[in-house]
């Protein structure tokens, strides 16, 4: 048996509800694949902030560095000013642990209802490689004369040659490993000319090393349209932090809903633990009612298993989810009922 140190950050709102189901499935699959998860739960989020004013203290960050991998639910709460937890906890973890790849598959499972007419699972099967440590997310910028009629708010997009190259390289590797071998850069190089030009030049230069991968470019506004009208044009996508955030919510919608969308904040160089989490947030509108779909978290657990070198366990979880989705239909089940059903399939 191999022991893996797992940090668990349930967080806010539906975070603890969906994480409980993710762990249920992890427990159901681990033993049979020779894995034991040594779990440490971290009390971070709105309650901690109200109690102590802390979001992600240095001491906790250092403890997280000593773990092998992290599972996160969601953060953010209406009782906390917007951005305090999102920036102070989630983005701080992504930046400090160098999660430069935010990996977000967009995959329509058989039997899942999509709002798109006439679309089959073959048409919606892409992987979004979202840059995770740069772009407009760095917090560079500021405000002058706040609250006056002459207020000035700036929010810079930071893009480095180093950061752009490493995420594009990762995306080429992903594309080269897939049957269609197509990589689309999504940006807005007609307006964001400095950053767009950097992405374009690096795509071209690194692309020379991957002649088997076809490259393509799409402006982000047009991409949002094509996600809805022609999703099969996309295979692997590489994009900036903010564009990636936006298009993956559209991706979630076309692939059956935000309750199914998984993600990994990946540090491919393994200099720090990677962090897996559903794409969705803390959903305060349904928190505490056992209405949240835990499937996104369970599929994030499958990505976590792949990351820790347990691909058979990962496939087992994915197959259990796929079977559950195929049989789900319009049945309304509670959060634990969905987790139970998937855990049972995994074990059985
Ligand atoms: P959200 O994803 O929390 O919710 C959007 C809508 O989707 C809501 O109607 C919600 O009920 C629904 N939804 C989300 N997850 C669901 C699930 N598993 N099952 C069924 N329905 C689900 O996004 P929001 O409302 O824009 O943000 C709410 C809070 O979450 C904010 O504080 C925001 O900053 C935060 N947030 C955090 C993360 C994260 O931790 N990674 C991601 C997104 C938003
Ligand atoms: C996500 C979320 C986060 C993001 C927020 C909460 C900081 O929307 O994980 O998609 O923008 O990355
Ligand atoms: Mn988002």
The largest sheet, given as strand count, sense and whether it forms a barrel, is: 10 strands, mixed
Strand tally is 12
CATH H level, superfamily name of the largest domain: Isopropylmalate Dehydrogenase
CATH topology of the largest domain: Isopropylmalate Dehydrogenase
Q: Tally the helices: what do you get?
A: 11
Structural domain tally: 2
The CATH architecture of the largest domain can be given as 3-Layer(aba) Sandwich
CATH classification, class level of the largest domain:
Alpha Beta
Bound compounds: nicotinamide-adenine-dinucleotide, 3-isopropylmalic acid, manganese (II) ion
Pairing-aware structural class of the strands and helices?
alpha/beta
Shape: globular
Order of helices and strands: EHEHHEHEEEEHEHEHEHEEHHH
* Terminal residue distance: 20 Å
Strand order of the largest sheet: 2-1-3-12-11-4-5-10-8-9
Describe the structure.
The protein is an alpha/beta fold. It has 2 domains: 204 residues, Isopropylmalate Dehydrogenase, CATH 3.40.718; 122 residues, 3-Layer(aba) Sandwich (Rossmann fold). Helices cover 41% and strands 20% of the residues. It has 11 helices and 12 strands. Strands 2-1-3-12-11-4-5-10-8-9 form a 10-stranded mixed beta sheet, with helices on both faces. Strand 6 and strand 7 form a beta hairpin. Helix 10 packs across helix 11. The longest helix has 18 residues. The radius of gyration is 20 Å and the shape is globular. It is found in: Cytoplasm. Belongs to the isocitrate and isopropylmalate dehydrogenases family. LeuB type 2 subfamily. InterPro entries: ICDH/IPMDH (IPR050501), IsoCit/isopropylmalate_DH_CS (IPR019818), IsoPropMal-DH-like_dom (IPR024084), LeuB_actb (IPR023698). Catalyzes the oxidation of 3-carboxy-2-hydroxy-4-methylpentanoate (3-isopropylmalate) to 3-carboxy-4-methyl-2-oxopentanoate. The product decarboxylates to 4-methyl-2 oxopentanoate. Its main location: cytoplasm.
